[in-house]
From TrEMBL:
SUPFAM superfamilies: Enolase C-terminal domain-like, Enolase N-terminal domain-like. This is Mandelate racemase. One of its GO terms (molecular function) is hydro-lyase activity. Residues 147-244 form the Mandelate racemase/muconate lactonizing enzyme C-terminal domain.
């Protein structure tokens, strides 16, 4: 039994390198919560989770007061059993973002430990479907950017090998959204994919009015047009649209994805490994989507998601938003394709000196098994 004997956690606050805005919010910072686990044999695993500027201390509190003490003396090799035990030991806080984000930090640490103990990289441990994946970039498509700026970034991205760009929509008028998308399509041509993201900002009527424009411009998908809990509205919209509806970054359990799929409310799922509670539930969603002939195109966290999208056969894209450059080595790339890490575990090369220097004062703590 690979008994877990200790854990420590801490938080690093990372500022974005560019201004990031969408129709409902700005990305102010990435509160990055780390968990480091060790077992009785001396094996180590480090996982992480994140918020976009709010809630990090609440996640740390849940880890410190409830989840990590419960984890002590459990078997690190039984990841599924550990995940379910931690979920149900504090079930009154689930389903929800704080619980899922805390679980994800632990679950990714356990998968990292398994990789180091077996000598296998995550994409092989989790399935090994492929070794690379095309990327689309979101970093140059934020809502505040002008049409000229969108085009400039998309041209540079195409020259770098990217096959697509995401453009945020949700301007006050359809004409404004149309102007931005048409500018990119005119210059980049029909072979370059354009994804759109409304970030849950629209009513059903506003989303419906944009369908002819999105279809005419051959948009790859219409992401989060409506609030995430409006499954019926998404189902109606998908039934009227030739453009796939994409949802998932604001869902926190496999059951929520099951409801969307059952009601034909989407054609692309975008599970975020942190927001759904870790690698363990992420893989369940990916396989559920595959069984329904649906693609999974995850949200954010490209340094971790690259291994997961390479693990499964139904993940055609990786979203490019660089955010860990201050604390980790750059993700391996071949032009516009991301390469699955071949080193054991998560495959992220952390800079431990920078992590220590950037740790938020007062955020770090240690947990040990009772008899130590």
């Amino acid at each position: 039994m690979a008994r877990i004997t200790s854990a420590n956690a801490f938080m690093v606050d990372l500022e974005p390198k560019v201004v990031r805005t969408d129709a409902i919010q700005s990305f102010n910072s990435q509160e990055t919560i780390f968990v480091v686990l060790r077992d009785v044999d001396g094996a180590k695993g480090m996982g992480y989770s994140y918020t976009i500027g709010d809630g990090g201390p609440a996640i740390l509190s849940l880890l410190k007061e409830t989840l990590l003490p419960r984890l002590m003396e459990q078997d690190a090799d039984r990841i599924e059993a550990v995940w379910r035990d931690l979920l149900f030991c504090s079930h009154a806080t689930a389903v929800g973002p704080i619980m899922s984000l805390a679980l994800a930090a632990i679950d990714t640490a356990l998968w990292d430990m398994r990789g180091h103990k077996t000598g296998l990289p995550l994409h092989i441990l989790a399935g090994g479907a492929k070794s690379s994946v095309p990327m689309y970039t979101t970093e140059g498509g934020w809502l505040h950017l002008s049409p000229d700026a969108l085009v400039e970034d998309a041209v540079a991205s195409k020259e770098a090998g990217f096959l697509g760009s995401k453009v945020k929509i949700g301007k006050p008028t359809v004409a404004q959204d149309c102007e931005r998308l048409e500018a990119v399509r005119k210059v980049l041509g029909d072979d370059y994919e354009i994804m759109t993201d409304a970030n849950q900002s629209m009513t059903s009527g506003e989303a419906k009015r944009r369908l002819p424009m999105l279809e005419r411009l051959n948009i790859a998908w219409f992401e989060e047009p409506l609030p995430a809990d409006d499954i019926a509205g998404h189902a109606r919209l998908q039934s009227q649209s030739r453009v796939p509806v994409a949802v998932g970054e604001s869902m926190y359990s496999p059951g929520q994805f099951a409801d969307y799929i059952a009601q034909d409310a989407c054609e692309i799922v975008q599970a975020d490994v942190a927001r759904i509670g870790g690698i363990t539930p992420w893989l369940k969603v990916a396989h559920m989507a595959e069984a329904h002939n649906i693609a999974i195109c995850p949200h954010f966290l490209m340094e971790l998601h690259v291994s997961l999208v390479c693990a499964v056969p139904n993940a055609p894209w990786l979203e490019y938003i660089p955010q860990l450059e201050d604390i980790a080595a750059p993700m391996a790339r071949d032009g516009g394709n991301a390469l699955a890490p071949m080193t054991p575990g998560l495959g992220i090369e952390w800079d431990y000196d920078k992590l220590a220097a950037l740790t938020v004062t007062g955020s770090a703590f240690d947990i040990k098994e009772a008899h130590q």
